[in-house]
């Protein structure tokens, strides 16, 4: 996939690096040369240009780009102007960063395809992690359903997925299991790495420190975690 990320703040630069680490091509754009220099060796390509200038933006390879993400977070006016500019250029998929509810309304009026709320989404995940002991991380699909990583409850250690009956007993699905595997490096040092096991079989036995990746209604997941601490 090919991405253009506009704005090298904490969110934009972190997102760009993670996308590159997953094998994607990322062009990063910022108006400040210092930020461009900081990322030039970390992502595919960086450009310093005035993103509020339509002529300058049109020099970017927009037709060959799958997703444009506007991550500007310091200047709400610039964020709106740049988002509208990309919308008018009919990019394939446009994602805007919302800074507050009013800003989000403006982005929706512009016709942005998707809106990201990094601060709000991070706060939501941390609120769950702090209040639900045993939860590792979560991804909210909508206000009712989530995908959640849960440390395997002690009472389930040594039991199979079929024996526990997650769907039958708790109305949730186990999408995969993440196991901590001991690996040796090329110099002989031992380290623990997390390894996704793929779609689990009914006979998969759960072990201590396994992480369950489950899907279901928020109320069912919360009850599962609370009842099996």
TrEMBL record:
InterPro entries (UniProt xref): NAD(P)-bd_dom_sf, RCK_C, RCK_C_sf, RCK_N, Trk_Ktr_HKT_K-transport
SUPFAM superfamilies: NAD(P)-binding Rossmann-fold domains (SSF51735), TrkA C-terminal domain-like (SSF116726)
GO biological process: potassium ion transport
Pfam families, sorted: TrkA_C, TrkA_N
Domain RCK C-terminal: 134-229
Molecular function terms from GO: monoatomic cation transmembrane transporter activity
Name of the molecule in the record: TrkA family potassium uptake protein
Native organism: Apibacter muscae
Record lineage: Bacteria, Pseudomonadati, Bacteroidota, Flavobacteriia, Flavobacteriales
């Amino acid at each position: 996939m090919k991405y253009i990320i506009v704005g090298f703040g904490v969110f934009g630069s972190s997102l760009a690096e993670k996308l590159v680490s997953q094998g994607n091509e990322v062009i990063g754009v910022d108006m400040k040369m210092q930020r461009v220099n900081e990322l030039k060796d970390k992502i595919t390509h960086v450009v310093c240009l005035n993103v509020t200038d339509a002529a300058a933006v049109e020099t970017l390879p927009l037709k060959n780009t799958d997703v444009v993400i506007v991550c500007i977070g310091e200047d709400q006016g610039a964020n709106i102007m740049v988002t509208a500019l990309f919308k008018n250029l009919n990019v394939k998929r446009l994602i805007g960063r919302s800074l507050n509810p009013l800003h989000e309304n403006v982005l929706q009026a512009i016709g942005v395809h998707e809106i990201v709320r990094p601060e709000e989404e991070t706060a939501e995940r941390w609120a769950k992690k702090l209040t639900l002991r045993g939860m590792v991380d979560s991804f909210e699909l909508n206000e009712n359903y989530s995908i959640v990583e849960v440390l395997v409850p002690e009472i389930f250690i040594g039991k199979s997925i079929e024996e526990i009956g997650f769907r039958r007993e708790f109305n949730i699905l186990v999408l995969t299991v993440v196991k901590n595997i001991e690996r040796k490096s090329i110099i002989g040092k031992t380290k623990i790495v997390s390894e996704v096991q793929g779609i689990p079989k009914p006979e998969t036995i759960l072990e201590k420190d396994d992480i369950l990746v489950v899907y279901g209604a928020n109320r069912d997941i919360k009850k599962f975690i609370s009842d099996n601490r």
